[in-house]
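Hi support team,

I submitted a single chain yesterday and got back a structure, but I'm not sure I'm reading the token output correctly. Could someone confirm the output below corresponds to the sequence I sent? I've pasted both exactly as they appear in my results page.

Thanks,
R.
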Amino acid sequence: MTTSAAQAKSGLKSLKTGEVLFNEGEVADSLFIIQKGQVRLFKPKGKGFVELAVLRSGEVIGEMAYFDEDGSGRKRSCSASAITGVEIIEISFAAFGKTMQSLNPWFKTIINTLVTRLRKTNTRIRELEDNQTSVSYGGKHSGYEFMKPIEVMRILGTIFLVFKAHGEVKSQALEVNRKALTLYTQDMYQIMEVKLESIMTLLVQLGWMEIKEDENQAPNLLLLKNLEVIRQIFIFYNTERHLPEEKKMKIGEKCEMLIAKMLEKAPGNPLVDIPNLKVTEDQAPRFTKYYNLSPVLDEFKAKNVVIHPNHVDDGKNLFFGEAFMKDGAILVEIDFPKMQKLYPIIRFMNAIKKSNSEKAPAGAFD
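Hi R., thanks for writing in. Yes, this is the structure output for that exact sequence:
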């Protein structure tokens, strides 16, 4: 790449949540300064990843490659991706090199010495991390999970306790400074920062948490809008982990969409009570109330979204019974209060599943 081409790379970039900034082993020709958001640094390990760090506004990424002795062989030593939406400034090594050349020789010597020492320290830390995590990704492990259920429990439990103990009521929400949460999650419980940030990002996306800037314009004010839902999800995960795999709740994306629309239309689509109804001659109804699916299915059809009555099967015997036709309408047996109670848990569970899928390396589930 010519100098002019490299300099042209400098400028402001935006990344979406989950978008990769660079991958380990790629040729490095620029460094980055984070303007807004959070970036995750990680290294592939077997069928998973070793998490290295979370970087935030004002921090630099990719600068170490500049100081490699052989400039033609500069490679990224790890991978980087956005945890949240990110705004980042890219500075080409060509442009950065011009700045370095303008420094006094003794100052450049100090910088190079510090970089060498830091690289040796980082190498040793990564070796220890690799050894510590090697068991997790080897042997009979069937597939990589960035966020395991027990880790979700630990993080949700800690968030609940911290907001319960330290939260101040602000505008119908509980406010906690990030430093208070960090004291528990990192200093006391050694919860990995990247996993905590991923959970909080999901809570923001689900509309249950808001992150605001403090007086120093740093995103340190955490507002939790629904403490009870955190408690319910924690209890759910604790119950599920003791169940055999075949008995665990598995609600697919289409079923979740169907439930969301059913809840949305519920005020104008009251439940039907049909006394003594039998779906078949030998089968009594599991639930005594019935939901008219026809208006819901018609709306999906009008939007060209493929949703069928059989998508209720994921919740069958949990809060759905049989779906059937009566007087031209498609009805489904339903325990509506239970479905309504479980819906936030379903949303969170599927958000975790999607996040794990996005962070899994290619072939992790082969």
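A quick pointer for reading it: Residues 52 and 126 are 8 Å apart (CA to CA). Let us know if anything else looks off.

Best,
Support desk
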